[in-house]
Fold Alpha/beta hydrolase.
Amino acid sequence: MIERKIQSSKGTIYYWTNEIVPPQEFAIVFCHGLTADHTLFDKQVEHLSAEYKLITWDFPLHGKSRPYKDFSFANVNEEMLTILEQENIEKIVLVGQSAGGYIAQSFIHEYGDKVIGFIGIGTTPYDKCYYKKSELFWIKHYSTIARLYPFSYYCKAGAKAITVTDEARTSMYKTLVSLGKKDMLKAVSAVYGEFLKIDDEVQFNCPVLITYGEYDNTGYVKKYCNNWAEKTGYPLKIISNSSHNANYDNYEEFNGLLVSFVQSII
């Protein structure tokens, strides 16, 4: 993967991509979760980079894409659009893990004509009808609660809570430590603040696949995903032997689902 960047008035955004010969008309774009970075998808890059055009990125306030001012989902959408223009990509399959699924859904809401498929990993729907006010309360105050914990403890406990395998846990722990407490709190406040503003349901004009890990006990992810699939009829796959970072915990099973999904579209 080749490291590249774009520059806007709000900050520098870093992304990684590969060269495919002959060039492909579409790319698979991966959106990592809150406080993670592009390395969350290392196992997908290893498996798919020889066959598909891939783009991973550190979306604003994460990884190398710091500092960044005026964070909003709309501004993040503009950054993603600029990346696609720089790479001459017209159509994409979006893969969003956790809060990266909110980024993906926001992009689909605004630029749905560019998206030919969406896979959610432990993410939940935009539409507020799925959420109780008491559940949204904890999202609103998450950064306040997180601030109370010593950061070393937060990193260890946080990485352990969302992974099953040692490899996935070590990767997530390193990412959290690298982010630092100040930027972790900033990212959490910004992303959840934007999520709480959402009112519109996303209209998907493309195939959708909802997935979550068998042992994902993060918030109410399982309940939301099950309700999402039941309401919409979108297919739901539960990834065995995995937690919230299911695509890393059980990357072999997830990679198989991803390839089958992409091949059913193109």
User: Anything to note?
Assistant: The beta strands are 2-8, 11-17, 26-31, 54-57, 91-97, 115-121, 208-213, 236-239. The first strand starts at residue 2 and ends at 8. The radius of gyration is 17 Å.
